[in-house]
Amino acid sequence: MEMKLFTGAIKYITVCLLAGLLGSCVEDKNSLCLTGVLYLNVEEDATLYTKAQTGVTFESLRVDVLDMNRDTVNTYKDYLSDVKDQRMTLPVGKYIVAVSSNHTGEAGWETPLYRGEEEVDVKQGEITSAQVVCKITNTKVSVSYTEDMKKYFSHYGTTISNSSGSLTFTRDEYRSGYFTPEELTMSLKLVNRDGNEFVIRKICPDVQPQHHYRFNIGVANPGGGDQEAGADFDVTIDEEHDEITYDIFIREENLFGVGVSSFSLSDNFVNGVFSFRENSETMPQIGLTYKIGTKTKFSKVLVETTSPVFVEAGLSKFDLMDPQSATSAQALGLGNPPRPELGESADFVDCTWDLSGLLSHLKAVNKKPTEHPFKVLFIDDRNQEKETSFTVKIMPDIAAAVEDPICWTTFAVLRGITVDGTAHFQLTSSDGLNIDIKDVKRTDEGNVSALVTGLKPDITYSYKLVSEQDPAMECGAVEFKVETASVVPNLGFEDWNTAPGYNRPGGVNKEGREYWESGNKGAKMGSKILLQKTDDCKEGSAAAKLTSQWAGAFGLGAFSAGSVFSGSVIEAGTSGATLQYGQQYIGFPTLFKGWYKYLPGNIDYISNEKKTGGSDVGIIYIALTTGTQIVKSPLNGIPVRFDPKASSVFAYGEMEIKEKVDTYTEFSIPLTYYNGKMPSPGTPIYIIIMASSSKDGDVFTGSTSSVMYVDEFGLSYDYNQECLKETEYKEVPVNPINNE
Fold first, then answer.
1. SS3 label, residue 312
2. What is the mean pLDDT of the segment spanning 639-659?
3. In 543-681, which ranges are E strands?
4. CA atoms of 23 and 14, how far apart (whole Å)
5. Full-model pTM
């Protein structure tokens, strides 16, 4: 059979079936169910390796046996551990054998997504064989830079993205990425020798599966051709090998005086929010200042808003560069952002966009505090993009009003506004609670807040402001509930999947995929086990043992920390590992607790080189985020470590372990929530739990003698002072309530 060798995109999996009458299943006294044996074997073809340097037989493959109605008969999560050299008994009949890679197809390094299926017929007394052809169903992308880029630019990197995710190709990144076959966005970020930052953005439409897209980026020939440098692609199509090459030429001199490099809101914004009382006698100045190149021309200024005033006018999404949209927006107080004046001498100048006109048009809806959020995307004539957001919060001009509370799992911050200095909250509930919350915080602007604890899910609460000096004061009430927290599976480490060479705690997420992961997937190539079940436990029958080791063979390998984390392994092999931290979650814990032992060794690997150092350090941490976080540990390249200060992280807590602890000891780690980052209701939340016997194992540093034991993890949701010490609610008075 003739094949294209564009990247070895097609693999052959040979499925051998051995069927025979092995026994019977008695349905009733007069009927027998004939059975056969299904024997699956993946035949390796070493000539068809992809550039990931791994054959399909080393892929993590899922095998599904389906009946002809495509209902699942059997599922095997890992071909190597569950199927290879195993025999499965099946009733005689026709089946579909479906084979696929054991990952979701999210963007990742060297992660082709294989899929294929074939019909098979299990017959009595016959040996049947079939061939399943598994093809790569996603798209391969690589980025390269010419040597002269280093001469003109101090930093550069290209981010390729689409709905499957994003990957950043730094100057030293030589691996290929794989994406869902759909439109790709390329963003090239450059910093020249003067420290000025530029972004060149391109769209690649009509992206095809099983194709290789190459982006070659270099500096244009000074004084030569390339008249469209920085503006368009030079595209070459190699149909024989299914390769499409984009040559991108940059004229460094053409970048002077262009670019939007920074944004800052006026000082009266707090965490991006400006609060204003309707019908106020004074009209403050608010604005957005940005640095802009004197040669820059805005091609688009895209505004998105859920402001009820703008939505009612048909302006939820609009472009301020469109004259009709600009006229409509100006009628609501949003004028066009300024651009540099002709004749400016500097390459960059500061411009301030006056937003004060909005204050005369935005309203408090239904006499309640109303937020009017705006997201603005600037796109210039070089396809550079910069985005910023701000919110104008309008307080009603009434005696009192309350707004939606900020909710955790067992407590909430009540919020309202009133000029009445004797006003306090009145809280009621569907189970009969009726209590005055008098210990409140007041500001000069009339904002009132209080924190109430002891809340329970499945109970509807309602609150309003009441006045001690004016019993007739009116205030509309707000209803709310707190959510029941998710159950994190197997926090006690009692259940284990102990497939050969791949120990991990049991438990699955809502998609049915494993909840807990470790470095075992990569380490098993060197016959090492970094995480394993142990009966040396605090309670129950099992605990987790984390062992740092050098994992490899024949001189190839890496120092690897023993670890366990909530998430998944995207890639693991001889070139390093790419991990995805986080599992979807509901709830807001305030304390992470459990039991541990730690036996640190002296560091004998630093950056994967055999060197000595001080005593190793273990770590246990927990984070709440609004998205998963990708962590990369390439043997050749720049690592991407977990960042507790990333924009998606809104709560975090950790414990570093620097001393020997040889008996099980309880730990208690408070989660600290971050200022201005509590997510709004409905935002997806992820929980990251991590324990590692070598804190710096992700950069191949630690001791091959370090061992950690962990057991009986748990989460608490009760209020504690530590959880809000870094938030805007740290000084809000606490009011316990009795909800029994």
1. helix
2. 94
3. 543-547, 549-553, 556-560, 563-573, 576-581, 583-585, 591-599, 605-606, 609-610, 618-625, 629-634, 649-657, 661-670, 672-673
4. 26
5. 0.63
